[in-house]
Structures are given as structure tokens and as C-alpha cells.
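Forwarding the complex inputs:
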Amino acid sequence: MTEQVESVISADRSAQAGIERSASLWADAWRDLRRRPVAIASAVVIVLVSSMAAFPWLWTRTDPRDCPIQLSKATPSAAHIFGTNELGCDYYAMTIYGARASIIVALVSTSLVLLVGALVGMAAGFYGGWVDSVLSRLADIFFALPFLLGALVFLSMLRSHSVWTIVLAFAVLGWPPLARIVRASVLATKNMDYVQAARSLGASDRRLLFRHILPNAAAPAIVVATILLGTYVASEATLSYLGIGLQPPEISWGIMIAQGQSYVTSGYPHLLLFPAAFLSATVLAFILLGDALRDALDPKLR
Amino acid sequence: MSDVVLEVRDLTKHFPLTKGIVFKRQVGAVRAVDGVNLTLRRGETLGVVGESGCGKSTLAKLIIGLEKPTSGEILVQGQNLARMRGSALRRARRNIQLVMQDPYTSLNPRMTVGDIVGEPFQIHPEVAPRSDRRRRVGELLELVGLSPDHINRYPHQFSGGQRQRIGIARALALRPEIIVCDEPVSALDLSIQAQVINLLERLQEELGLSYIFIAHDLSVVRHISDRVAVMYLGKIIETGVDTEIYDHPTHPYAQALLSAVPVPDPTLRGLRDQIILEGDVPSPANPPSGCRFRTRCWKAREVCVEQEPALVEREGSAHPSACHFAEERDVVHATD
Amino acid sequence: MLPEPDPDADLLDVRDLRIEFRTRDGVSKAVNGVSFTVQPGQTRAILGESGCGKSVTAQAVMGILDSPPAHVTGGEVRYRGVDVLTLPDEERRRIRGNHIAMVFQDALSALNPVFTVGFQIGEQFRKHLGMSRTDARRRAVELMDQVRIPAARQRVNDFPHQFSGGMRQRVMIAMALALDPDVLIADEPTTALDVTVQAQIMSLLGELLRERQMGLVLITHDMGVVADVADHISVMYAGRIVEEAPVRDIYARPAHPYTKALLESIPRVDVKGQQLNVIKGLPPSPTRVPRGCAFHPRCRYARDVCRQDPPPLYGVDSRRTSACHFWEEVVSARSEGSEPRSREQDEGVGGE
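Prediction (whole assembly, three chains):
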């Protein structure tokens, strides 16, 4: 009997979705995003780069560490479409394998930053008072450290430089802006009438936070997180370029750019161009998607 | 008619004004509500009118439990809500529900209508068994004139008037005796207001509800209320049944307020006794001594500065009026 | 050579104004052939609910439409015979302020928070008349006196947030009056104010109109205010004027079902135990205006013809018009009252 009711209801729901404006803000945003060419192009780039990171063998059968030295610094050809580097490694394979470090750093750092930032921001915004004072001042202190300089100092104190130490550096330094954003939107949402209405019904703090405030306050944080993904891809490359991030024999776009740049003027610009193009495309894709998401989630623009 | 469902005694709410960032010290207080007494009987509507800043919305929040009073009592079935805590308070709250002003912000945009109207049951699970909730939500929607088929829709798919009905259905879910309506129609379009007013009246008749109807529109309040209380700067300055307030007002502020209400009848133009008040309402952080209206009152004398007039029946007023010189003056109808 | 204003022509004559909004979701006809006139010393009320096109009309007359998305697609706005819609921008700016001025609903957002009110009032004198700062300030104080802001001399250097809502509205009126315009357009000037403050502002506006022989276009939804101050009323519904008449006629014997229904649905402060009649359903959204007469789905007089043919403006008598096929029936009907009615009629359920 109940099953029957449920199925009728869900049928009703899908029927409505087809006919008229319906569903939630996220569904609206999704529909809006599908109509934006920039968003679709960005998403395609992100999916491609992510597949390089997860399944590089889909893209190349060549081992980037199998480097016949006699092939050193070959220009692009049919056998090596991106050419080879000074050690004779296949540059196309290296570029594909280089995506993994970027994507892992970006995804894991952003997840950690999102988690810490959201928890701190929610606590500060919802409880206010001394909790807010303490957490906000703490965030201010971290906020005052320049991000890249902080990461440089942090990493130079550590002996080993792996993907995970970089993630740790980014997470420790990156949460304050997110905490601020979450705090601001929790503060704004907390005083909305519907939260007051639930409070007047006797709802618990947990219900207020997770049922009423968080779903309505999450959008700005998610937009910023999307843009942060791009920023972290770029920052990882920067650190590796400066020699304080990943070290060879690891493969990353930053290292490739660092090593490739010295050969640009001696007639091998492809050693810089290919990794730089992949890096820029990925960073740009994340930032443009974040922008599109911001527009799509802002009901005032609709 | 005589059984009292809610009594408010000497209710005050002072919001402290503080200075300093880390070490806050109090430098004063906004006296939003300053000694209010009210009685609400079963099945009756008590209108509370006043202009912005008079404390009527704070009064609503105090009664509904969204703010803690500074002092005073809120008595429901002999229990003082102001002193209650925890689960006892949660149970007591079921009896008083709120209908808010703005139907666009009072419903969570991420929840379906079914979830919104059913939320009271989730917060108070003892009221209805889980298996019965969906049926009850459907009944509630029907009761307020919405189709139960709309249970899976989101608020933005409804018009303002329909959203206000959803808000009313939510307020009715726990079968309260008392509903506090805080400006329930002022955000609605002209042609929709009457729909919601008539709905509230029918629900009152069918369910025996008591309303505290807070509004700035004196015409709407007259239409729906049995008794009316007029507020100025945190105090009730005149109270009585409908005709006492509207046809025989005795407090100068009530008279000024009523005379300012335009009547949709051009033949009365120039025939009504119009009182144009001077100046602005003083700050509730620093109210005048004695009578709070004296700074704008044309009757004010020495005694008004020194002595605060009590809200009592007087020589010039058959119903309670807080004016030393209370005297009837018809400001609503045409006079010659 | 630009046309010179003709002092014998109507002060303000709006003819068949049409405005469209062009957005991603399509074109909506917000204003669909609106005409009205204003004479010196007269108040023309444009009455309607939100979304009926009354504010857009005011903005178009004033020349401050947000364009895009809004576009004037037809009609004329004649000030003393000169069609301001066809004037070059420079000329239009001169008319605006000098001859036509506007007062907005929300004084707090219409005033710039970082300048003193004296500076903002005086700005007009400096910009349009090339006055010096001190002269402009002196004139600003005079204007503040005229709109009865107490202690104007001291308050001229205050910022907008230091004034109460009513005083801010007076500042706005002072700004509008600065260049001595002949037409004042007031868009819901008292909607955000308390009722005693509303009475202050309306009585001030009334006095200023009489003193200066200005024409006032009052955009509002408040039937009480209109009854108090207007001479002529145009009732708007879904982008059209559905009824136009002198104020007493319209309240005594409305000739359009919408006007009639509105009058019966609002409670009056001077009547006890009144029955409120409800208009079922909702005002249409400008993107989906019903065929035929836009009001027909909510109208108790509607018949087949109303679903097909949009009614023209019928002349009810020499001074008034109504856009209803059955206006004769409406005018002669007495107000519905006592017969028992259903819940649906009472609360307008189902129709929304």
C-alpha cells in the first residue's frame, strides 16, 4: 500500500519536472549550466584531465620513464607527437602522467579546505559570541600569511616533498578564506524567517544547522571551492617550478615547465609550450566553471 | 467565551546597548517592550496595532518564545512560559504557533511543501506516528485550500498567497490553541489579502483558534479583531473592544493614528477630523519621562512630564486609556 | 531646430505607450497602450497591483527605464506638446529635472549615503544652473524649510542615514522640487512609511501642489490614499488601463469588474463587520497574459466574448472610460453582499 503511494508520488514528481519550472535551486542551476557553452567546455576539459590523472594508460601506452637517451630533445614527430625532452623521454606520455599530481593536489587540498573551512565557518557563524571571536581571530592570523610564501616556508622546513606534504601545506594555509565565506553566509541565513520559523517550532540546533542553514548557505562555498581547484593546480606547478614542491623523478607539469624553460631559446619551445598549455587549460577550466556556477546559483541573475 | 488561554503580565524586553569589542560594557538599553499586559480568550482575536518601532514584533517574538523576556510572565494554562526550559518548554510551545509576514522568506526554499508542513511532526514526533504523517500533511493542505497533490513541490512554484497558506498549514500542524499572526497579509498583493483574511476567519471558526493579530494596517485589524490594543514606544496606550477603539478613541495617539488612516471613499474628503502629528517617534533607548507621547501631544501639560499615566478606565474613557486627559474624539467618520 | 514647448498644450499627455521587456526567456509586454493626461494643479492616480506595469510607465515617462531589458516600442510622452521620447538625450535630461521630476518609494536607497543631504539637494543647482557651492547650499536650506524639515540650517550637513524615514522622504521631495518642475511623478511615495508619517507627507505634497500649480502623477496601490488626494484615476491591470474616471465616479459606481472587485475586497477602518468579497485567482504574469480580456479568468461577469476579444475602451460618459464589454451591467449592479457564498468564493481557492 505504502509502496503504491510512493510510486504514485514519484511518478507525479517526474511528470511535473517535465512540464513546468520545478525542483530545487540545484536543479535550476544544472539546467542553467547546460545552456552555457563555456560551462560545458570547461566541464569537458576537466573530465578529460581527470581521466588522464586516473587512467593515464587510456591515453598513452608509452612509459614516460622509459627514456632512450639517444632520442634527446627530439622535435614533435609521428612517433613522438609532443617530441622528447633532454633525457629522451616521450613528452606526450610525460604530459599525460603529469596530470595526476596536479589533480590529486587540487582535489585533496580543496576537500580538506572545504571541510575545515565549513566546520570553522559554521561554528563561528552559528554560535557567535566568544566562539566566533576566537575562530575569527585564528583565521585572521592564517589569513595574514601570504599563501605562496607560507607554503614555501612550510615546505622548506620539511625534508620530504611529496604530493601529500604539498596537500598538507595547502590545507593548513588555505582554510581561512573559506571559513570566512561560510561564516558570512551562515550569518545571513541564520536570520532568515524560515530558520526563525523552525526555531519557534522548537527545532534543535542540529536540525537548524543541517536542515535549514547549511543547504542554503553552501552555494558560495562551493563556487569558491571550484575556483580553488584551479588555484591549487597552478600553485602546485609554481612550487614545483621553484624547486620546493615535487622533485624529479616525479612527473608534474610544474617540473616539466621548470626544466623545459631553459631550452626555449635554444630552439625547443615545445618543452615549455605543451605542459604550460595543459596547465593553463586546466586552471582556466576550473575558474570558468566556478564563474558559471556562481552565475547559475545566483537567483538574482535569473 | 470567558476562558483565558493566554495571559501576559508586566512583560518587558530590554535589548542592552554595549560598547567595546572584547570587553563589552552596557551603556544603556532599548526598551522594546516595557510592561505589557494582555489577556487572550478562547476563540477571540486580539489585534495589536502600532507603528514601526513600537515593539509589536518583539512582543510577538516574546510570546512565541523566540526571545527571552527581561522580566514578566507569559501564562498558558497556568504555566509560565518565561520560566520554562527544555522539554517542558518544547511541549508548551506546541500550543502557540506563528504565522509570519513574508511568505517569500518564511519557507525554506530547499524543502518541499510536504517537508515544510510535516516538519512540526518531526520536531515533535509524539504528536503523530510516522505512518500517519503524510496523510495529516495532505489534510492540512486541504484545510488551507491547497491541493494535497502539491506535496512534492517547492515553495518557489507557488504564488505569495499560496505560500502564506503553506505557512498557515505549518502553524496548524500541531493543533495549537493560539496563533500569533505577525503582519500576515501586509506582504501580499491587494487582491490576495482578502483571500487570506477570510481563510484565517474560517479556520478560527472551525478550529476554535485564538489569534493575536499584529499589524500596522488598522483597517485590516478592525476587520478581523474582537479587541484591539494600541502600542506606542513599548507600551499599550489604549485597549478595548472594536467599537471602543475605532468609534470612541480616547488617547491622543490612538486618535492621531486612526485619523491618519485613509478611507477609500472620496466623498469623505475634508469631512474627517484629521490630526497631523509633528515630528518623529522618540528613540526607545531614551524614552521621554512621564507619558511617552507627551513630546508630540497637543494636550501635554506639566503632569504628563512628571507622572506616567496608567492604562485604566478614566472619567473620559469607558475603556482603559493611558492618558491623563482622556477624552473621546471621533476621527474615523465624517464630522461637521 | 527642436520643438518649443507650447504653453497651451496639455501639461503631460501620454498616448498609447507600449513597453516590452526582452529577456532570455522571451519578450513580455509590460505596458500595452497606456494613455493619460495631467493638467496643472491636478493629481492623476495610476492605481494597480504589483506587476501591472504602473512603475514601468512612470519610469518611461521620466526617461529612466532600464534599457535593456526594457524597450519603449510605441506611443508618445508629450510635455506641453513636445514628444520627449523623440528628443536627443541631452534635451531629455534638460526636461527631466527642469520640468518633470520624480519621487521614489525607497528614499534610503535613492539617496547617496556618502554625501550630505545639503550637497545632494544643491547638486541640481550646481549642475543645471551653474551655481556656486555656497549659493547652492543656501538654496538647499530654503528647500528643506519648504518641505518642513525642522532645523534645516543645522541639518543640511547631515547624512541620509541620520534622518528618519519620513524626513528622508521630505529630502527626496526637496530634491525633486529643486528646479521648480511642473510635473511631479511620485512612485509609491508613502508605501514604506507608517500611517501617521504617510499623512504628514501626503498633506505636504497636497500643499506644494496647490502653491506651485504642479501636476502630480501618483503611482500607488492604496485605494485609501487615492480617495484622499486624487482628482482622476487610471486603474491598470496587466499592462493596460482598464478604467479611467474622476475620483468620485469610480468609487461611487465603478465601471470595470476589477475596480469594483478591488473596492469590495478591502476592509475599511470606519465600517464594522464588513463582508470582504474576494477576487479569485492571481494577477497574470506579464509573460502569460490571458487571451481576450486579461481579467476574464478572475471576472464574475465574464462570458464567451471576453475569452476571445480584448475589450476596447468604451466611453461610459463624457468623462470616463472602461475596458469591459459589459460595463453597463457593472455600473448598474449593486455591490454584492449578503447572499450565501461558497468557501471557494470567500477565499479564492482553486483559482490560483
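The radius of gyration of chain C is 22 Å.
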